[in-house]
Design a protein that fits this description.
Elements lengths: L1 H6 L31 H14 L3 H25 L2
């Protein structure tokens, strides 16, 4: 078998066309929501996001995720320490 691959290229055996590509990154389903924020708060978030070179919506999602994870961890600690 080694002799075969010494004389052949793997690209001959593989179909690398786009139709056969699979996205292996799991992306959970998303839902669009409407959120009303005070203008000064939104302006501040946009400035922070611009300083980090990311979209402000992405920054809000990161912050919400971090806070939810903190809350989840805190609840687990309370459950395990009576």
């Amino acid at each position: 078998m080694t002799a075969y691959w010494d004389q052949h290229d793997a690209t001959e055996a593989l179909d690398l066309s786009e139709k056969n590509r699979v996205n292996l990154v799991y992306e959970p389903p998303v839902q669009s929501i409407s959120l009303r924020l005070p203008v000064p708060l939104l302006t501040q978030i946009k400035r922070i996001a611009a300083g980090m070179d990311i979209a402000y919506q992405a920054l809000i999602k990161v912050w919400l995720s971090e806070k939810a994870q903190e809350k989840k961890s805190a609840e687990k600690n309370i459950e395990h320490h009576p």
